[in-house]
Amino acid sequence: MAKGRTSVFYCQNCGYESSKWMGQCPGCREWNTFVEEEFRDREEARRGGSSRRARVCRLSEIEVKDEDRLGTGFGELDRVLGGGIVPGSMVLVGGDPGIGKSTLLLQMCRSLTETGKKILYISGEESLKQIRLRADRIGSFGDSLSLLCETDLDVIEGAIQAEKPEIVVIDSIQTMYRESVSSAPGSVSQVRESTGILLRIAKGMGIAVFIVGHVTKEGVVAGPRVLEHMVDTVLYFEGDRHASYRVLRAVKNRFGSTNEIGVFEMKDKGLCEVMNPSEYMLSGKPKGASGSAVACALEGTRPLLLEIQALVCQTFFNIPRRTAAGTDFNRVNLLMAVLEKRVGLSLSSCDAYVNVAGGMKMNEPAVDLAIALAIISSFRDIPLDEHTVVFGEIGLSGEVRAVSMAQARVQEAKKLGFSRCILPQVCLSQVKGVKGIELCGVKSVQEAMGLL
Ligand code: TYD
Ligand code: MG
User: Quick one: which atom of ligand 1 is closest to the CA of 171?
Assistant: First the structure.
């Protein structure tokens, strides 16, 4: 890199670095995202480094204790974190504005104060008064929670060193800044620098740090992707703003599986855990309506029953309209093509709207069969049996293919009182042990249609 250069341009979307301004980012193809920021010479940064000697140790010398994890008091949150908070870890919580990130973290703080854990909650977005008002809605707090409204990281670092808390919450990394970096808060350099400092604090002092990150309209945490690489765990808090339920999903977890989800419901006293999400998802299901099928999908290792709705009607345009809410649009088109060709439904002259009820997002192929049956049911205007659950992947020749963990799915359906399950024929051998529910194995969509 050229000597004497003092500034560099960063794409604010993906962190692409360039020596000159560009209209379109070659990295992420976004327009007008380059902003000039101060260039920090790597050589210079290194020169100021410490003279500590590195200490090498053997794998077997490292001691790990199982009881290291702190329970948050929220079963659903613990599950997503992989069994509780790991001291010295850094967790990024991303989500749309107003989805409940601050509420979730404040509630977590509340239940941690019950066990006397020392917590420092740092907000750069809300005043102390606003936090107090929110806290009053949530419930009574123990005495070990301290608050700080600050955005200057040097001050924050000092406060953490003085307070020595066990857990630190940073409400929005995008509001934090460091004086020595000249660009604006929320820019790539600032976010990266701030996260770096917090990471050092977390690892050095063994403090668990939770940081809130805003999400861009594309649905990724604003700022560079490096943010996600630096932290140990990335959680996304998502859900329909209009529906009250929220799903917490781990997309990266160095201390556990990324397959887990936690389901919450936003109430007037904050977030409540939803112990039985299937029941919750099906609660508004209409009776005797055509175009509705109950699917059993898998969220991580958790079976979840969902209602798939389809509305198929005559089109008035040259090109039929198709929409898919909560599931993959291309998948719906593909399934409609399969139904057209293999089953002989004339869907090409029909508009089709497919929706996963409750605002849930579900892209698992196991919901294929439910989507197909919902479309057929709406097209023929015949309601499906209310007490039937369906799952199975559909191939291009209309065959119903195997899905994983069939037994767990069937058991979930049985638990919720369903009396019949339509599933791939090849999965039948896996579910032999389940009694009390009628199992119908099918090889193709036509066969499943015959059972309607
Ligand atoms: P908030 O945690 O401020 O969202 P974020 O930090 O992700 O931007 O959530 C605010 C929303 O939650 C707001 O629309 C009000 C609602 N809410 C409730 O419905 N009940 C409550 O008890 C609380 C505290 C908030
Ligand atoms: Mg907030």
Answer: 6
On the CB side of 207, CA atoms within 13 Å amount to 26
Domain that holds residue 370: 280-450
CA of 268 to the centre of ligand 1 (A): 9
Which are the contacts of 136, defined by CB distance < 8 A and separation ≥ 6? none
- What is the distance in A from the centroid of ligand 1 to the CA of 1? 46
The rounded Å distance from CA 134 to ligand 2 centre is: 11
pLDDT tens by residue, the chain, 452 residues: 445 557 888 888 777 888 899 999 888 888 888 888 876 655 555 555 566 788 888 988 887 766 678 888 888 899 899 889 999 999 999 888 888 999 999 999 999 999 889 999 999 999 999 999 999 999 888 899 999 999 999 999 999 999 999 999 999 888 999 888 888 887 888 888 899 999 999 999 999 999 998 876 665 665 656 688 889 999 988 887 777 788 898 889 998 888 788 889 988 888 999 888 888 888 888 888 999 999 999 887 788 899 999 999 999 888 999 999 989 999 999 999 999 999 999 998 999 999 998 777 888 999 999 999 999 999 999 999 999 999 999 999 999 999 999 999 999 999 889 999 999 999 999 888 888 899 999 999 999 988 87
Q: Is 360 inside a domain boundary?
A: yes
CB 209 within 8 A of CB 168: yes
Q: Which of 256, 275, 294 is the last residue of a domain?
A: 275
Cα 126 to ligand 1 centre (Å): 12
350 lies in some domain: yes
Give, using CA atoms, the residue closest to atom 21 of ligand 1: 270
- Which ligand lies nearest to the CA atom of residue 237 in the structure? 1
> Structurally, how many domains does the chain consist of?
3
**116's torsion region: left (phi>0), alpha (psi -120 to 50) or beta?**
left
Q: How far apart, in whole angstroms, are the C-alpha atoms of residue 141 and residue 35? A: 43
What is the CB < 6 Å shell around ligand 1? 95, 97-103, 134, 137, 266, 268-270
* Residue with CA nearest ligand 1 atom 25: 270
